[in-house]
TrEMBL record:
The keyword Hydrolase applies. One of its GO terms (cellular component) is cytosol. GO terms for molecular function: metal ion binding; phosphoglycolate phosphatase activity. It holds the Pfam family HAD_2. One of its GO terms (biological process) is DNA repair. InterPro entries: HAD-like_hydrolase_sf (IPR050155), HAD-like_sf (IPR036412), HAD-SF_hydro_IA (IPR006439), HAD_2 (IPR041492), HAD_sf (IPR023214), PGP-like_dom2 (IPR023198). It comes from Dokdonella immobilis. Keywords: Carbohydrate metabolism, Hydrolase, Magnesium, Metal-binding. This is Phosphoglycolate phosphatase.
Length: 221
């Protein structure tokens, strides 16, 4: 992979872009359902909304749940998820090679996620990325989260790079919206969860259908 020389950095979303965390998130929801006497959730349906966060997962897995119940159950759900220790979370096949290629070319990379820091940092550590990642901006790092551009701009500042010379890769519309508003070029990760959306409708600068296709797309100019 020979990334465009003008590119200074590549930013990635975490869940559904770098890592497949759905198995742990679905398993935690199944455990919660056992605790509250609810039917087992549909893992396929839940997987599709993983990128939208814990509240969306609860709404999907517990159809008809009202918002006060979502808020009441969310802390327990997150505790059950954290207790799993990311046992089944893995990098998508081929992602490590993409990151190593960027590192070999001296191109900085970082992570911008809406996952709160106390959950995001252990995932990054489990995947062996903590010392490789130049910036980790979590959902509670700043007052605003994606689709606001602030987290993307903050990551660029931490990496000391120009947003206009940065690529942002993500599997959710809000990733593309945040990157575009921050002035980065954007790549939709169509291998991810997508939250029921169609990347072709997001207005990204490019779409990578698979991780294997990403190196060629990173030559975007």
């Amino acid at each position: 992979m020979n990334a465009t020389p003008a590119v200074q950095a590549v930013l990635f979303d975490l869940d559904g872009t770098l890592a497949d965390s759905a198995p742990d998130l679905v398993a935690a929801l199944a455990s919660l359902c056992v605790e509250i006497g609810h039917a087992e959730p549909d893992p396929v349906a839940v997987r599709r909304v993983v990128s939208a966060g814990g509240r969306a997962i609860l709404r999907c897995g517990l159809p008809g749940i009202e918002e006060p119940q979502v808020e009441a159950l969310l802390p327990r759900y997150l505790d059950l998820y954290a207790a799993r220790g990311n046992a089944s979370t893995r990098l998508y096949e081929g992602i490590d090679e993409v990151l190593r290629d960027l590192e070999g070319q001296g191109i900085a990379w970082g992570i911008v996620t809406n996952k709160v820091g106390w959950l995001a940092a252990p995932v990054v550590e489990k995947l062996g990325l903590t010392r490789r990642c130049g910036a980790l901006v979590a959902g509670d790092t700043l007052a605003r989260r994606k689709p606001d551009p602030d987290p993307v701009l903050h990551a660029c500042a931490l990496l000391e790079v120009d947003p206009a010379r940065t690529l942002f890769v993500g599997d959710d519309l809000r990733d593309i919206e945040a990157g575009r508003a921050a002035g980065t070029r954007t790549i939709a990760a169509a291998w991810g969860y997508l939250n029921g959306g169609d990347p072709a409708d997001w207005g990204a600068d490019a779409i990578a259908a698979t991780v294997a296709a990403l190196p060629a797309v990173l030559r975007l100019d």
